[in-house]
Amino acid sequence: MNDVYINRTSHYFPNNPVSNDEMEEYLGYINGKPSKSRRIVLRNNAITNRYYALEKGGKITHTNAQLTAAAIKELFRNDPEGIRHIDVLSCGTSSPDQMMPSHGVMVHGWLPQLGSIEVVSPAGVCCAGMHALKYAYMAVKGGDAKTAIATGSERFSASLVANQFEDEAHKLEALEENPYISFDKEFLRWMLSDGASAFLISDKKNETGLSLKIEWMEGISYADHMEACMYMGAEKQEDGQLKSWLEFGHEEQNEKSILSIKQDVKLLSPNIVPLGGKILPELFERRGLNPDDITWYLPHMSSNFFKDKIYEEHIKLGHHIPYEKWFVNLSKVGNVGAASVYFMVDELFHSGQLKKGDKVFLLVPESSRFSYMYALLTAV
């Protein structure tokens, strides 16, 4: 089995950063009214900037595939011929531009210089980027490929604009009910951001400068006993089951904003952190990892609300990871789902703070039906 290294990282954000006060200039006002929940959510999540593939007024500027292709091109900014020697392209996202074809092949379509290669598109939500990385890692580790590109990307903004909710708001108003959209639909409008990041994976480390050796990657799902918490293209029923968008008529889809992203916040808060820590004692013991050996801790957080809760959960498990080891950039870039952990690794990789021998622990939760991915990298 080959050793596997991350030799380059890159990122691409669309347009200029958007401040908290500007958000509704891009996303629009639902039913012409400012949001009642925006300031409450922003106060808790501590996000101060995010990026949208939109102009003010909601005009779309980039597709998800274009964002991802741009991040890949950044990998080869100083080595334009290097892109012609890639064996596998693995692209993870939870917001593809279409249901078919897959996100990965649409990205490939913007990069003819890659030639005809293997392409894979893991589905999912925040863990999709880690699944893409694991596929690239396994392909290189098993010898099926010498080089691979793994990406994480999102373009959430197109599903957050006000016109996606107008039919529902008007229906509520016509029924003489409160015309504000329910909190489970509004919540994520103030959390999510657009962007793409890419890693160049190889069976050889860099001859000069640092590489990140992927020591191991593991994942776990608790869907065997947990119901859906975040979902899109479905409506949650009283028994916890999801009713597919395919079972709704066209008018009903619009009147209930079925294609919007929703979060069951009552299910999220009591479960997302404890389940993320559940496997850690066994995982650390089996992998021979002492928390004291971790140099950098990169936990993906949807909101700063969870930071202290994650810290306290580690203490409860006997794994003290002090805040000075944490490396997060949520406040600057927002929650970019499948790309968030890539952005953290990318920023750390280019920060000048990494030293040979540093151990970097990644933890990515996914609230959709409570899945988690973990990985350990070593700077070499």
Automatic annotation (TrEMBL):
Keywords: Acyltransferase, Transferase. GO terms for molecular function: acyltransferase activity. It comes from Niabella ginsenosidivorans. It comes from the Bacteria. Transmembrane segments: none annotated. PANTHER family: 3-OXOACYL-[ACYL-CARRIER-PROTEIN] SYNTHASE 3, BETA-KETOACYL-[ACYL-CARRIER-PROTEIN] SYNTHASE III. SUPFAM superfamilies: Thiolase-like. GO terms for biological process: secondary metabolite biosynthetic process. This is Beta-ketoacyl-[acyl-carrier-protein] synthase III C-terminal domain-containing protein. Residues 285-363 form the Beta-ketoacyl-[acyl-carrier-protein] synthase III C-terminal domain. NCBIfam families: PRK06816.1.
